[in-house]
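Residues pack. Consider this:
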Amino acid sequence: MNPNDPFIKIKPYLTTHSLFPENQEAPIHFLENSETPTGLTYRRNHFPFPALSTKSYYLTITGSVKNPISIPYNQIITMPSRTVTSVLECSGNKRAHFEPKVFGEQWNDGAISQGTWKGVPLFYLLQIAGIQDSAREVVFEGNDSGVKKGQHVHFARSLPLKKAMEHDCIVAWEHNHKPISSKHGFPFRLIVPGWYGMASVKWLKTIRVVDHPFTGPFQTDDYVYYPHKNNNEEAVPVTVSHVNSIIQQPRDRQILQSGQHEIKGLAWTGEGVVTFVEVSLDDSETWKPANLHGQPLQYQWIMWSYSFLFEKNREYSIKVRAYDSNGHFQPEIAFWNWKGYGYNAVSQIKIKIE
């Protein structure tokens, strides 16, 4: 088989971790566009996919509101809309890199994708319902459900009211210019740009405004940074995505011929924009600025590259770190926490030159 034959279509695929529930990584090393194709968008689930139809689908807004309402699908998609292109990254992305190792889905680098989402701004829906003065948080419940610690629960998360009212938080019905797929939240998915993916609740069915802190299991047990394995001291919630990067090419432990090669990859951050990426080829002794391709945009990853003349019969340790407009940068060692969230240490690979 000749891979250069124009009649042979070669394409990357998702990397499967589990099927029940389905958890699959995006082929991040081979993505080059601002939109990850839907079929290559990572999948992170706690429960089986719900089977839903738009024919009798309503989104309910209840709780500490003046006008509790249930709005049918066909009405919501006619409401004022907003389109947001955003990275969505699982908070457990790169968990497999933690040392010491932690339990949980052993994601490598591909629990991340970028897509374009269209939907009604969340604040618009909350204004229709009329928020009461006592409101503190907004809880979002999906249709996916199952047993967790002996109890049947739906996946549910909350946002502080201030965050929920930001204009870029939307209840989306389109992903990459088509109705959201059944595996990515159809018919409605909350999109919270800049926060880790657990906040962007899929298969959204109920929005509940509350006057107290929400304490569901995916709010106060999972998706919390626990820095101490034997107690809950200094625990803080997982929220904003950390500044991070990945080396797409070359691949780790790849063998290359001597000569000029391009090191390239992606960098992203939750708040602000990526402003600088630098590369080291001598194990952090010296750092050189990489080229950024395009204008850094909020919520979106940016492509970077660095060209280098590699010498024959040598091994190279390549490291990359990104900086953002808020002064955050990738540390040499990630903040260890026993559930394995938010890994963003300096990206690194090793290659051999023949």
